[in-house]
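agent> Task received from the user: take the single chain below, predict its 3D structure, and emit structure tokens. No templates, no multimer pairing.
agent> Plan: (1) validate residues, (2) run structure prediction, (3) serialize to tokens, (4) report one or two observations.
agent> Step 1 OK, no nonstandard residues flagged.
tool_call: predict_structure(input=
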Amino acid sequence: MFDEYVEHASAPTGRSQANYGLPNVQYEGFEPNPFEEDPMSPNDSSFPAGISQPPIFELGRVQYTLPAPLVHMDSSSYILTMAFSNNTLRQLNLRQPDAVASITLTTKKSPSELTIYRTFMDPTGKHTIITTEQGDNFYVYDGWTKARPLAKFRMVIESVAWNENVVQSSSTNSKAASTREILIGARNGTLYESVIDAHDDFFKSQDRYLNTLFTLPDRQPIYGVKFETYSSPESKSRRGAVLVTTATRIYEFQGALDKKAEDSGKLFEPLFEPYRAQSGTTPPKFIEIPGHLARSELRFYTPAPTLKDSAATSRQLGWLT
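)
tool_result: status=success, residues=321
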């Protein structure tokens, strides 16, 4: 998106080219497309007559002055989150370009003592987790102007698996909004489970619990994590499958889930219990890529839910190196 970044302002007179200060702009928002037809549009002879196919993706120009060097950027459901080196964040609603929310971290530490590493957004764009290089973590919900600390989270987060089956319905009620059970992949090679609630009680932490599930044998950073739940016709119970990736390995875990009550939490405890018991003798199975890679990314394609299948499962995955 920022490859097509433009700025509509002439440089002030008397300023040399060596000055790299941010220029003033005349407006902020989307830059209209000057072309009548999209040059990337697939509406050509390769498609049957009368059928209009939307492009795989589109590049839109956004006019916005960055208040500080950009550290990380994430986008979900038309919400763009940008984290800056001065420990502030900006959230832009891409459907309302003039709606820009400024977010600060609830901390007394200065940028020299606390450095934002990256952000993680859920599929709805309402839940955002901010992790720092020092292991402090924060959470912000849709409409908040301050990111609140996650007291139980003391790790550098590298990946988050959101609970896509329930986050769509739970996030519609701001008074009871919750991430439900999510998985956290950390730099120390440990996988955690947690539930984060978006309540308004300032004296109560947003993280309901943080449960350690499994530590990889090689203790490499967990750069990707994803889980799916499904029903087992044989046992008439819910089961789960979890994929975990490091820079060069992809692990798979399968087993039964614990769901005795609607809000009991700790859904994945029974799934990982057999793996923890055998970790000293039989490590979990994995596929490894030869070589020395710096990191990898795990991405999934999940189709939109339908009337017949309100909780669609992922159809394709990409392991990017």
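agent> Step 4: summary for the user.
Residues 269-277 form the longest helix (9 residues).
agent> Done.
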